[in-house]
Recover the amino acids of this structure.
């Protein structure tokens, strides 16, 4: 019996020895990566710090797997990430005081910077270092390319008759102009005791307009339009190819030549060089059918070859699309998703300091979320400064045309780069950086 | 010696049999029966240890329920087994065969459309909704051995087909076919010493498909309990896998192996030894019928090394049996699609067990004592996500069975078994950044399961009625309850934790002649 027990134990001991094998580790490993954040625009990168930028990593289904903050050099490490496809994004919300102090601007609200979500395949053989570029505001395919609001000389040129706005397709895919809205944004241009203003920016405090709901952020989330035009079309009638643009003219004629007004009187031009030929534009603003008081302006003729825009709102009793040559109004393009019928859009008056009842409803409330592009126009005079009508969400800077009113100059976006023959225009959501002055040139480029 | 045998129960290290099919409890030949089934698994001893001629028809209805289980195990199951087996000797060939049918109904099976016969699969479909699974398996087995003087030729064939499906959305449907064959040669070197060598070959296929009665589930990636995920590795990725990628794949398996045998008869009993090496290769692929090409998903290879050592002695009115077993399996995969064949998953599963049994035959009574102890250790390591589960457990049981033989040769027996289990080591880790649905529904639950201490008991009551000639009828009822303790919260996001109880029951009827 004892022998058998001994034998059993020996055999078992042998088995135990065999059991001690080397451990094998799998080839595949998790990966540690580094994310570097930087500002897209050099103006910010020299003024704003790179620390405490929130970096998020999302998995393939969009779920957040990592959230961390950058160090003073704008770097953050993401350890032990399983190989796969991830989205990386950087965001930072600057408290308004910090932002103003660092950038020298006068924002009213906190400023959000974010990068596009960069999708990366991460594995043992891939890059381990990624960068994200932070920009403020949102980016869209269509941008306002050129605004000729200054007009030309009142006597020798075309005065205000030759205004135009040009919209450009800055993406690589076809976009459609059908149904696009173009509007002039209203704001305070001077300070007085009559109205209520926001503390820092000096702009109207729209939250105090009569009838403004109290459960919305009337200043940060909306702009207020005095003119609203809409391009016609059923959806795909007016394509804008990549790298091309559409021009909307106040009056689509060749202003370099005389033409006959609607009253039969000839309209002449002394110095054609001061103005532009708008006879080949894509759309025109023909106001005559909308004028219900007084007489339409004779210079606003209808070019039968150029489709007319739909005029939803004229500023006051405007008889044509006459832009403020002093730059008192800014411009937006937007779409109407989630806004309901045009007739249902709410409008308000400027906020009176004494809170008096006003129901004229001059300015239509447009949600910032619907704005595709915005350009803040500023006074060309260095002694005059209009308070900003847009927050940094829409346009962090402004542009004023060199030469001012009646200079024959327009403001136009600079070209950022050319890819396969297609121009990509600057769009950092900051007109100060994105725009320059040129002599008005529909479909032309700055550089 | 008699006293010591009665009172001292030898416990080495043993293996707890997690059997759902209750062992036949015919006390007169419990040890003999264990040797018989050992010889069926190792057919060099077919001639010697399987009866010349016997037939057994067996039907069993049993089930288990309780929440102390692995996450992918069923919360409740009911199974019916019917099998008929027997041996016969034709000319000089000892033949044995079995036909068995098994149907299991499972409730609350989640996060894995699997057969349960391939527990380390590195790729499978899963969703977190609870399924009602129906599994049907048919198995035909045959063994044979013929002696030619000192030589013998022996072999066997196993053929199994299975059909698994869940009858609520998401409807997993698995078709299985497995064929295994073995052929060996042995030689008696002397009267007492015999050696043998056997070659094994097998192939099979498991074919998986997931469908939905409600079309919306197959198109929408909304995160619901119907969303179908593909689980890659042991937590590397758990991604939605929808209609566009084809919710089907097949696992083609090929197995090769060899086994060496040795038996030695001595004055102090007979020794049996086996040692085996097997290798299985599994190829997971989608066969895209329309395009007649294959989309290979994963290639998985599992090695299996092990051996058995058994000793038995019958002396006077006592019988002894000691059996030591050891198996070491290790598997590695190659993720072919989307990862260029990198090895991501490493699997190791070792079991070492010892069983000791003693039967004492008296006039009207028989006493049978058994002790099992086993050490199981398993490592599952996923490279991509850094998921690691490495545990080892000790499980043991002690049982005592008493059989009373009446004057009419009827037998009544009662058996009581005590069960206990304890984890020796549990190492687990996964970086939080890589936690996904798999960890939430399976991994943390299983870590909790392996950390538990278990204790339990099993009771069996049986009755054997002899009929004319050598026929008999046997009825058996058994009940087992296991309770777990020491399951702690891991502090990570988990959908469920294992419960504290698991019960088994079985009723069986056998007719033998």
């Amino acid at each position: 019996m004892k022998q058998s027990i001994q034998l059993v134990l020996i055999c078992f001991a042998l088995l135990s020895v065999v059991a001690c094998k080397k451990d094998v580790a799998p080839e595949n490993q998790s990966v540690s990566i580094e994310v570097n954040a930087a500002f897209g625009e050099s103006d910010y990168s020299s003024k704003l710090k790179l620390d405490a930028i929130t970096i998020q990593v999302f998995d393939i289904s969009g779920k957040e797997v990592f959230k961390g903050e950058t160090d003073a050099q704008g770097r953050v490490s993401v350890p032990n990430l399983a190989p796969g496809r991830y989205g990386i994004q950087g965001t930072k919300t600057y408290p308004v005081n910090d932002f103003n102090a660092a950038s020298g601007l006068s924002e009213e609200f906190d400023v959000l910077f974010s990068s596009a979500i960069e999708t990366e395949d991460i594995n043992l053989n891939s890059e381990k270092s990624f960068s994200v570029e932070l920009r403020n505001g949102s980016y869209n395919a269509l941008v306002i390319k050129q605004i000729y609001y200054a007009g030309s000389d009142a006597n020798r040129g075309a005065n205000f008759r030759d205004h135009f706005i040009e919209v450009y397709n800055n993406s690589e895919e076809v976009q459609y102009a059908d149904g696009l809205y173009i509007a002039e944004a209203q704001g305070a241009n001077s300070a007085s005791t009559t109205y209520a203003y926001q503390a820092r920016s000096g702009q109207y405090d729209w939250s105090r307009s009569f009838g403004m709901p109290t459960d919305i952020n009337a200043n940060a989330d909306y702009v207020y339009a005095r003119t609203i035009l809409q391009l016609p079309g059923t959806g795909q009638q007016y394509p804008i190819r990549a790298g091309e643009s559409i021009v909307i003219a106040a009056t689509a004629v060749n202003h370099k030549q005389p033409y006959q007004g609607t009253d039969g009187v000839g309209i002449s031009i002394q110095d054609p060089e001061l103005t532009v030929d708008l006879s080949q534009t894509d759309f025109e603003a023909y106001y005559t059918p909308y004028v219900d008081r007084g007489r339409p302006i004779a210079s606003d003729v209808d070019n039968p070859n150029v489709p007319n825009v739909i005029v939803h709102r004229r500023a006051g009793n405007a008889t044509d699309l006459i832009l403020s040559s002093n730059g008192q109004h800014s411009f937006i393009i937007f779409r109407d998703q989630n806004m309901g019928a045009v007739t249902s859009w709410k409008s308000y008056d400027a906020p009176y300091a004494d809170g008096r009842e006003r129901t004229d409803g001059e300015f239509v409330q447009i949600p910032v979320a619907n704005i595709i592009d915005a350009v803040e126009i500023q006074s060309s005079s260095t002694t005059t400064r209009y308070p900003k009508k847009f927050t940094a969400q829409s346009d962090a800077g402004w542009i004023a045309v060199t030469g001012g009113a009646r200079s024959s100059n327009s403001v136009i976006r600079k070209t950022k780069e050319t890819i396969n023959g297609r121009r990509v225009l600057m769009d950092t959501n900051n007109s100060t950086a994105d725009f320059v002055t040129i002599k008005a040139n529909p479909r032309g480029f700055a550089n | 010696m008699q006293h010591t045998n009665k009172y001292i129960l030898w416990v080495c290290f043993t293996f707890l049999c997690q059997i759902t099919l209750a062992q036949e409890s015919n006390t007169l030949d419990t040890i003999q029966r264990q040797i018989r089934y050992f010889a069926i698994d190792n057919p060099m001893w077919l001639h010697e240890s399987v009866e010349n001629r016997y037939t057994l028809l067996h039907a069993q209805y049993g089930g288990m329920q309780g929440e102390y289980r692995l996450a992918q195990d069923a919360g409740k199951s009911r199974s019916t087994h019917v099998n008929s087996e027997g041996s016969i000797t034709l000319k000089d060939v000892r033949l044995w065969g079995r036909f068995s049918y098994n149907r299991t109904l499972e409730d609350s099976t989640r996060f894995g459309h699997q057969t349960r016969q391939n527990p380390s699969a590195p790729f499978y479909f899963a969703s977190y909704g609870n399924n009602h699974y129906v599994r049907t398996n048919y198995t035909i087995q045959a063994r044979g051995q013929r002696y030619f003087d000192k030589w013998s030729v022996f072999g066997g064939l196993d053929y199994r087909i299975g059909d698994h499906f869940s009858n609520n959305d998401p409807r997993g449907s698995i078709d299985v076919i497995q064929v295994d064959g073995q052929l060996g040669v042995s030689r008696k070197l002397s009267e007492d010493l015999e050696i043998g060598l056997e070659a094994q070959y097998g192939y099979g296929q498991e074919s998986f498909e997931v469908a939905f009665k409600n079309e919306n589930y197959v198109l929408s990636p909304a995160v619901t309990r119907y969303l179908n995920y593909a689980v890659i590795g042991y937590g590397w990725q758990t991604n939605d896998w929808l209609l566009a990628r084809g919710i089907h794949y097949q696992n083609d398996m090929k197995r090769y192996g060899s086994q060496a045998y040795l038996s030695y008869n001595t004055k102090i009993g007979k020794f049996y030894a086996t040692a085996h090496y097997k290798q299985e290769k599994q190829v997971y692929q989608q066969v895209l019928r329309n395009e007649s090409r294959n989309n290979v998903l994963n290639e998985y290879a599992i090695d299996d090394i092990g051996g058995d050592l058994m000793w038995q002695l019958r002396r006077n009115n006592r019988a002894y049996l000691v059996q030591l077993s050891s198996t070491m399996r290790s598997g590695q995969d190659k993720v072919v699609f989307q990862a260029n064949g990198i090895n991501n998953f490493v699997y190791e599963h070792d079991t070492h067990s010892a069983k000791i049994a003693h039967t004492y035959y008296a006039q009207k009574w028989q006493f049978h004592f058994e002790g099992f102890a086993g050490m199981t250790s398993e490592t599952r390591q996923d490279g991509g996500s850094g998921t690691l589960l490495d545990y080892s457990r000790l499980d043991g049981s002690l049982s005592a069975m008493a059989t009373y033989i009446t004057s009419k040769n009827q037998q009544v027996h009662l058996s009581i078994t005590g069960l206990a289990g304890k984890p020796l080591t549990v190492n687990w880790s996964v970086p939080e950044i890589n936690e996904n649905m798999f960890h939430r529904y399976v991994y943390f639950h299983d870590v909790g399961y392996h950390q538990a201490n278990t204790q339990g008991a099993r009771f069996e009551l049986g009755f054997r009625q002899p009929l004319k000639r050598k026929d008999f009828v046997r009825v058996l009822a058994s009940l087992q309850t296991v309770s777990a303790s020491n399951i702690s919260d891991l502090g990570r996001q988990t959908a469920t934790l294992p419960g504290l109880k698991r019960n088994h029951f079985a009723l069986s009827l056998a007719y033998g002649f």
